[in-house]
Amino acid sequence: MSTSKILHEANPSAEWWRTAVIYQIYPRSFADGNGDGMGDLIGVTSRLDSLAELGIDAIWFSPFFKSPQKDAGYDISDYRQIDPLFGTNQDFDALIAKAHTLGIKIIVDIVPNHTSDQHAWFQAALTAPEGSPERAYYHFKEGKGKNGELPPNNWFSIFGGPAWTRTTNADGTPGQWYLHLFDSTQPDLNWSNPHVAQEFDDILRFWLAKGVDGFRVDVAHGMVKREGLPDSDSHDATGKEYNISKMAIDEAEKRVPYWGQPGVHDFIRRFRSVVDEFDDRAMCAEASMSPLPRLAMWVRPDEYHQSFNFDYMATPFEPAALKKIVTDSIVEYGKVGASSTWVLSNHDQVRHATRYGYEIEIPKAGDGIGPDYAQPDEAIGLRKARAASAFMLGLPGSSYIYNGEELGLPDHTTLAPEFREDPTFFRTNGERVGRDGCRVPLPWEADATASNGFSATGKSWLPQPANYRVFSRNLQEGVAGSTLELYKRLLKERKAFGMGAGEFRWAEEFEDKNTLAYVNNGVLVLTNFGPEPVVVPAGELLVTTQHDLRLEGELEHDQTVWIKL
Ligand code: GLC
Question: Is 528 inside any structural domain?
Answer without folding.
Answer: no
